[in-house]
Amino acid sequence: MVIICYDFSDNKTRARFSKFLKKYGRKIQFSVYEIKNSQRILQNILDEIELRYKKEFTNSDSILIFSVCEGCKKKIKRYGYATNEEEDVVIFD
Predict the structure, then answer these.
(1) Is the pLDDT of residue 89 over 60?
(2) Which one of 6, 13, 44, 87 has the fewest beta carbons within 10 angstroms of its own beta carbon?
(3) What are the CA-CA distances from residue 46 to residues 1, 14, 91 (Å)?
(4) pTM exceeding the 0.85 threshold for the entire prediction
(5) Selecting from 3.40.50.2000, 3.30.930.10, 3.40.109.10, 3.30.70.240, what CATH number does the domain 2-84 have?
(6) Do 30 and 79 form a contact (C-beta atoms < 8 A)?
């Protein structure tokens, strides 16, 4: 799993980056996405950042990417709505 968090001062850039990340993972907080770990997907994201977003950075913009290993994933504590994120849900009508 990869956690990507970002902050852009420009609203259009922020919205565009959020839309871009939505293709690869799910939003878990404002400006924070969880991406299922795949070297190919991570490389696609890094390439896009380098080619498209890096040139638009200002001194107040940032992107942080955290790789979470399998052992560390088991140590994540989830509360509230987030507790349902890892559970299979079955709905009966």
Answers:
(1) no
(2) 87
(3) 15, 16, 37
(4) no
(5) 3.30.70.240
(6) no
Structure tokens at 88: 């299979």
Q: How far apart are CA 42 and CA 65, in angstroms?
A: 10
**Measuring CA to CA, which residue among 27, 59, 82, 93 is closest to residue 4?**
27
What order do you get walking across the sheet with 32-35 strand by strand?
25-29, 32-35, 2-7, 62-67
Distance of CA 29 to the CA centre of its chain: 9
* Residue 22 in tokens: 């939505």
For residues 10-43, one letter each, b for 16 or more C-beta atoms within 10 angstroms of the residue's C-beta and e for the rest, the string is eeebbeebeebbeebbeeeeeeebbbeeeeeebe
